[in-house]
Write a structure and sequence with these properties.
single chain; elongated; four-stranded parallel β-sheet; six-stranded mixed β-sheet
Length: about 375
């Protein structure tokens, strides 16, 4: 499948004779170039730039493989571009950069940006990924979206809404513990906070994050200020006693005893790949709803449920950015696809459900207009 790569470029017009060639290239193309030079907005109508996404990585945090470098990251970026096309009808270009400094990454992407309508950041290690995205969003007037953060968060929120519903609760009724303070752990936590979860605490490899802990970087300091109202200071497993929700995004392990200690009708999202923090069969002995990041168990939290529709909606209205409200709208639309069919083994739809991308697209586009970031 991978031999020779998974992508190719195809033309959208036929070049059948000299007249077609003269129109498609020189001299006919000069009229289009001159018009765009005079009125830059015409590029949106007469080039592909506004409807193409750059899939950008530095290869430092690839799919659980870690820092394998830009060349080894290309098969994954090709795969991401393939998913954009298959699930969102979006053309995209994989770009693997041979630099890892924040300044270099930002400057390189800024210089590439005129060729694209959106930037999908992929597999850039934390905490650099947060600064890279923030700085690019400040400097560019096109959507910038770090899928490892926000794609995971959108799908997790959708799944948790439905999981709470079938257990007779709302987000506001839940106390959650998140294992992992990397890109996805931070983003999931932030999105659940914005959506109104009752309480949420985050742990990293050194234990629970709380205001009195020393040595926290700026991202974790901000988390400490906004989370963990119960002020847990020990381990993840200690914080799980009586908790309603566990979300694993860490690559660590959690014992069966810790899952057993959770509240009745607990919800376990063990999302590390390929090995979940707790095996789903073990978690199901004690939890009401179990989700993983794997396709061989029910309730797969898969980013492909989010990013194609998010970008399709943003590109369709030529959004200048992707707002927090647009992400929440995407999650709500995704949850609504499941609707009244929600059950313990069905809190998120399949990636192959044809309703998913159109529903997310419509919700994101509508919210972009409400938020005043749409240009079309």
């Amino acid at each position: 499948m991978h031999r020779g790569g998974k992508l190719e470029v195809r033309s959208t017009i036929a070049v059948r004779d000299a007249d077609d060639l003269a129109l498609a290239y020189t001299p006919g193309v000069a009229r289009v170039c001159s018009a765009i030079a005079e009125t830059p907005e015409l590029a949106n109508n007469y080039t592909w730039a506004s409807r193409v996404v750059a899939v950008v990585t530095d290869g430092t945090a690839v799919l659980g493989l870690g820092d394998i470098g830009p060349a080894a990251a290309m098969p994954v970026m090709e795969g991401k571009a393939l998913l954009f096309k298959e699930f969102g009808g979006i053309d995209s270009v994989p770009i693997c950069l041979d630099c890892t400094g924040v300044e270099e990454l930002v400057e390189t992407v800024v210089r590439l940006a005129p060729s694209f309508g959106g930037i999908n950041l992929e597999d850039i290690s934390a905490p650099r990924c947060f600064e890279v995205e923030d700085r690019l969003r400040e400097r560019l007037d096109i959507p910038v979206f770090h899928d490892d953060q926000h794609g995971t968060a959108i799908v997790a929120l959708a799944a948790l809404r439905n999981a709470a519903k079938i257990t007779g609760r709302t987000l506001g009724d839940l106390r959650a513990v998140v294992a992992g303070a990397g890109a996805s752990g931070v983003a999931v936590t932030r999105m659940l906070l914005n959506a109104g979860i009752g309480d949420i605490a985050v742990a990293d490899s050194k234990g629970m994050i709380h205001p009195r802990r020393e040595g926290l970087n700026s991202v974790k300091q901000a988390l400490a200020a906004d989370t963990n109202r119960a002020r847990f200071t020990g381990s993840t497993e200690e914080a799980l006693a009586g908790a309603d929700v566990f979300i694993g995004l860490s690559g660590s392990t959690v014992s069966e005893g810790a899952i057993r200690s959770m509240a009745p009708d607990s919800i376990v999202f063990a999302l590390s790949n390929p090995t979940p923090e707790v095996h789903p069969d073990v978690a199901r002995r004690h939890a009401r709803v179990v989700a993983t990041g794997r396709s061989d168990f029910p309730n797969q939290i898969n980013n492909v449920l989010a990013f194609p529709g998010v970008f399709r909606g943003a590109l369709d209205v030529r959004a200048t950015t992707i707002t927090e409200n647009m992400k929440v709208a995407a999650a709500d639309a995704l949850a609504a696809v499941v609707g009244d069919e929600a059950s313990e083994d069905y809190v998120v739809p399949s990636p192959f459900d044809a309703r998913v991308a159109p529903a997310v697209t419509a919700a994101v586009a509508a919210q972009a207009r409400k938020d005043g970031v749409a240009r079309a």
